Every structure is written in C-alpha cells, then in structure tokens.
Amino acid sequence: MRTQVAIIGAGPAGLLLSQLLHIAKIECVVLERQDRAYVEARVRAGVLEPVTVDLLGRVGVDARLRRQGLRHDGFNFAVDGEVFRIDMAQLTGGLHVTVYGQTEVTRDLIDAALERGTPLFFEAQDVALHDVDSAGPYVTFGAEGQAHRLDCDFIVGCDGFHGVSRPAIPESARRTFQRDYDFGWLGILADVPPCGEELTYANHEHGFALASMRSPTRSRYYLQCGLDEHLDAWPDERIWDELAVRLGQSAVGMIRGPSIEKGIAPLRSFVSEPMRYGRLFLAGDAAHIVPPTGAKGLNLAASDVAFLSEALVGWYRDHADAGLEGYSARSLSRVWKAERFSWWLTGLTHRFPDMDPFARKMQLAELSYIRGSIAAQTTLAENYVGLPLD
Ligand code: APR
Ligand code: PHB
User: Fold this and answer.
1) Angle formed by the axes of helices 374-384 and 357-372, to 10°?
2) CATH at residue 318
3) Which of 77, 255, 323, 381 could disulfide-link 311, Cβ–Cβ 3.0 to 4.6 Å?
C-alpha cells in the first residue's frame, strides 16, 4: 500500500488531521488500534476553544456542534463554597468557549471520514514505524489477519501518550519535561440537568471539584482524589455528598442521579521535544499532556494539526519545506503557554498533599486578588478561551 501521509491514531488529532488533508487533496491513511465503538465511547474533555470550533468548521464537520454545542461566555470559581464569576466574553472582546463532548467531536469526525472515503483502519494491530529518518518511511501493521506495509512520504504520530510514535524517535534525539501530580480526578457522568448554566471550578479545604456538563440533561462532575483511591470506595451517594460540600453555593439545587460512567484519572504535565524527527511528526497527546484543569488537551491537538496540515500543504503544493522545518517550534510555542496555564490553574485550585498553611494562604490570596482585579481576570480569561494560533 502507498499513501502520502500515514496517520497513527484516530483520536481528535488523527481524525482532524485526516480531514484537513482531505480538503487539501492530500492522501492519507489512518491506522487505529481500537475498534470504532471503543474510540467513540471514550469519555474525555468537553470544552472547545474558538480556534477548535473554527477548524471543525473549516473541514465541514461542525453541523451538529453548531446545533448542540453550548455557548459559554463565562465560568465560576467557588472558594470554600463562595462563588464568583469570570465574564470571559466581556474580558476578551466577545470570545467564548463551546461545551461539546470530545466523544461527539470524535463521532462527527469518524462519520465525515467514512463518508468521504478516508482510508481508516480500525483494529490495526502491531503498528510499527520504519525508516522514519529516511526519504522513504513506512509503517507495518496487521489487519484482519493480514500483514500490511504502508509506504508513505510522512508519518504523523497521533497515537496519544501511550502510543508507539514518540518512542520511534531515539531517546538521544528527544528531551522530555514532566510533572506528575500527587492526586487524581474522579469523574462521573450522569443524566441529570447540570447544577448551573456555566462551569464551576471549586477550591475547597477538602480538595478541588468541577461542575461541568455535556448537554442541558447530562452533567459531568469531577472530584480531586488521592492516587491510591479506588472507585469501589466512592459509591454515587458519597460522590454527590462531597460535590455538594466542595461546590458550596454553586451546588444549591444540584440534581442527583445514578452515574452512567465513573473513572479515576491521574494528572500529568508532559512535553516531548522536538515534535519532529526526519519524516515523523508528532501531534496531540503523543507529544504533550496537560492536567485537564484548563481543558486544553483537545484544543492543543487541534492547533498542532492545524499547523502541520498547513506545513504539509506547503510541501506538496509549493515544494517548500519551511512549514515542516518550523512545525515543531511553532506548535511548541503554543503548547508551552497552555502547559503553563494548565499547571498554574491546577496549582491555584487543588489541595496539594504537602501544602503547608502558608501555601494555602497564597492560594486564597491569589483567588481573592483575581476576584477583585479586572487585570487578573483578563489574563485568566484570555488563556481559558485559548491564545491565538500565532
Ligand atoms: N496503533 C494505533 N493506534 C494507537 C496506538 C497504536 N500503537 N496507540 C494508541 N493508538 C490510538 C488510541 O487508541 C487513540 O484512539 O491513538 C489514539 C490517540 O488518541 P488520544 O489519546 O485521544 O489523543 P489525541 O488524538 O492527541 O487527542 C488528545 O484526547 O485523550 C484526550 O485528553 C486528551 O483531550 C485530549 C485529546
Ligand atoms: C469536562 O467537561 O470534561 C471538563 C470541562 C472543563 C475542564 C475539564 C473537563 O477544565
């Protein structure tokens, strides 16, 4: 088999890249390890920056998003139960975020890819990258009991943090930067109306909590928990009780119901540099991870592939490699700013196990300063809605 661009992974990064290449008439093949149901069922983030919404519009995959996505002009902080609002639209000249689950984004992109005939292999086994630093890279994989070789011009690793693409770059050629947090997020999904119109981020003595949503009838909540916690120690009732404590005023009228999905995920900040090695490029979680606090993971995957598709168009249409040469630096510039914001917002809102009374006072002082300062709220708002692409 032969194609121009081999894409490993059919998450948001791989799928969006495949459609950006489709509209540029650049051939690609997408190789995904899991089956379609598994990919579509993964419950992940739910806040889209305007940049991401525009990209989905550019590839013509925004019809359902525009019908069902929820426009949010602001969000709230609850500090030991007391609530104040950040008016993003007011502070950013009218920008807003759109609440629309990543599962929906993935579903829309898979539908578009299949409708448009993008070669998309689910259940591709033992994907392996070869000769990535040559002019003739190729990928081998198994599908339906057959072994395949896919020759290509470029390979793009969109296979997430645990994928095979990043390790295909020799350790001597890459540097990683990492911060692991001593706590996780317990998340639940419930088919009950959200407890408010907008999201609330809670900093409480007991720990962080987040009230989010997927639709007017489906809520998404998170509780900070220890890394040694087990789901069986968190029956729904205990989760609802703790959410009510940590969310305080913003949980007045919170409607409880059975969780339809429940999970505990660790938090990590991670970047691997560079995001290119020869004919191999990395995009999305394959290259970087942010703690979910700032809702940046999906949005960074989108900006990576926006930069990369532009660079690939330059190479194929104008035979210019400046875009490819500059891809890693350009993506990392936006990635590091989002890493900083996600790390900062996590530090502002969570209870760190080793936090002494002074550190707690610093958190409360910073939240109090933000509450009273338009300047502080503006910097927070412009990072939350997402910095410009360049
Ligand atoms: N071969 C083929 N596919 C693979 C392999 C492999 N060896 N390893 C992983 N994959 C697939 C996974 O099954 C997954 O579908 O690659 C895809 C990676 O998707 P994501 O992990 O969603 O990463 P990305 O597309 O970069 O999107 C980042 O997704 O996980 C969230 O929080 C993250 O919101 C962020 C977004
Ligand atoms: C979510 O709805 O899953 C969500 C929203 C905002 C965040 C993180 C997760 O910061």
Assistant:
1) 90
2) 3.50.50.60
3) 323
